[in-house]
Write a structure and sequence with these properties.
The protein contains five helices and seven strands. It is α+β, with helices and mostly antiparallel strands and 159 residues long. The strands form two sheets. It has a five-stranded mixed beta sheet with strand order 3-2-7-5-6, with helices on one face. The chain has a two-stranded antiparallel ribbon with strand order 1-4. The structure holds FE2/S2 (inorganic) cluster (2 copies). One FE2/S2 (inorganic) cluster binds next to loops. One FE2/S2 (inorganic) cluster (FES) binds next to loops.
Length: 159
């Protein structure tokens, strides 16, 4: 049985029909073609599927699509128009925080969420914000450096 829902993804309105047990991750990737959201463990362990739902970071593999009726979802694709995205991306590249890149969309969403709430985070706050995002390549130090560098740059842009 399928259910009609309405949601906004990266500023675009969609009205898909979803299965009762269908995850938001499946809806995004397989029905709406939003491939920036990565399917890793699909059990809430890796954070590769992190998106914002009504501004809150969630593992999209753990939330049912039907629960997202009326909600607004932001993925890494939706950040392209955000000037902060260019700064984050540049910092990730400069600091060597991207290797295979599989974790990067989820990391960027978690970092963006943190910087929205806390524009001048401490290292501990950064580590806490990305604690649900696994990276098997970088050892995290470069990712933490990149997010701190991006936060500094965003502060300079604002002043
Ligand atoms: S794919 Fe969702 S947490 Fe790993
Ligand atoms: S860069 Fe490969 S998993 Fe993070």
């Amino acid at each position: 049985m399928t259910y009609p829902i309405k949601l906004v993804v990266n500023g675009r309105k969609f009205s898909p029909r979803v299965e009762g047990d269908e995850t938001l991750l499946h809806l995004l990737r397989e029905k709406l073609g939003v491939k920036g959201v990565k399917a890793g463990c699909e059990s809430g362990e890796c954070g590769a599927c992190t998106v914002l739902v009504d501004g809150q970071p969630v593992n999209s593999c753990l939330i049912l699509a039907a629960r997202c009726d009326g909600k607004s979802v932001l993925t890494v694709e939706g950040l392209r128009a955000n000037p902060q995205m260019a700064i984050l991306e540049q910092a990730f590249l400069e600091k060597g925080a991207v290797q295979c890149g599989f974790c990067s969309p989820g990391m960027i969403i978690s970092a963006h969420s943190l910087l929205q709430k806390s524009p001048h985070p401490t290292e501990d706050e950064v580590r806490e914000a990305i604690s649900g995002n696994l990276c098997r390549c970088t050892g995290y130090a470069k990712i933490v450096e990149a997010i701190l560098a991006a936060a500094r740059r965003m502060g300079e842009v604002e002043t």
